[in-house]
Design brief:
By secondary structure, the chain is an alpha+beta fold. 39% of the residues lie in helices and 22% in strands. The protein contains eleven helices and twelve strands. The strands form two sheets. Strands 1, 2, 3, 4, 5, 6, 7 and 12 form an eight-stranded mixed beta sheet that branches. It has a four-stranded antiparallel beta sheet with strand order 9-10-8-11. Strand 6 and strand 7 (188-192) form a beta hairpin. Helix 7 runs antiparallel to helix 8 and helix 8 (253-277) packs antiparallel against helix 9. The longest helix is centred in the C-terminal third of the chain and has 25 residues, at 253-277.
Amino acid sequence: MSAAARGFRAAFGYGPAGVWRAPGRINVIGEHTDYNDGFVLPVALPHAVTVAAAPRADGRLRFRSAQAPEAFEADALPEPGTVAGWAAYPAGALWALADTGRPAGGLDLYVDGDVPSGAGLSSSAALVCATLLAAAGDAPPAPEETALLAQRAENGFVGMPCGIMDQSASMLARGGHALFLDTRTLAAEHVPFDPASRGLTLLVVDTRAPHRLVDGAYADRRRSCEEAARLLGVSALRDVTDLPAALAALPDDRTRRRVRHVVTENARVLEAVDLLRAGAVAAVGPLLTASHASLRDDYEVSVPEVDTAVDAALAAGALGARITGGGFGGCVIALVGAGRADACAEAVRGAYKERGFAEPAFFATVPSPGARRLA
């Protein structure tokens, strides 16, 4: 019996109808491109959110979590914007189902997971995806539809104007591959990405800098991109083909920098995909570093802890490193030779100690499978 199933029985006094698992994600490259109809290249993590659940006939909701002391209960499905904290995400999943004509009814839900919360690894998207699968039971929507429902939950219920990348990675990913996703058409390609087979390690540094996106900074950048697209006469920044001309047509330096990041980041994703198709995994490293510089300088979503980790990893021999996720904290990824991972971690740890930052955490990750039912 899984830990989630045991937790469910302890919390509710009976056994669950099933157990479902949805992974977090790391984005290899393609940051802040998804809501601009652009390209992304995430992988699913071995870390996941697991839920044990059982339907209720009375419409009541009871949520518990192994990682949070706050319980949630409601006699009926709440309205958007009325649920605070972690419970907003499973509530949003049920709301998305109901809002598209598939009410799930009541639900007892127990959540357990090992995706580091607040680290920019999409624990929230994993929780929504796992809840959607649990609520759908034996008749789940297709993975692509589940990803769209999960995005709808975050956008419409939680109030987070995210794109489709995190949910797609959680639902569609395959082991040993990165997910090349066109966020406009939702066309997906599983591109081979197995660093270990090339003598490399994908090292993740949890900077422990708080990662908060619903405070307006993310939404502000999305609005800026949408306004820039309107000024340029395109439906989204993905459609900008002449970057110098576009920059010359924009009214202020901040908007120009936002546009430059999105357009150049899309180009970096396409170049990375070509390299991975050719098996040139190590050659992706410089693209990661260029992505970080663009996110730091043009998109302005980095923080000192992140920049310190990137600089220290590069100085210790990493082939490339960058912030991953929405920014303002969270995690750094570094592509390193397998024999250099410990040295890079020690270099980051030393730089943090020197600057008085909180102790970072490290783990090596491998591209892993997407969401599934466990029991």
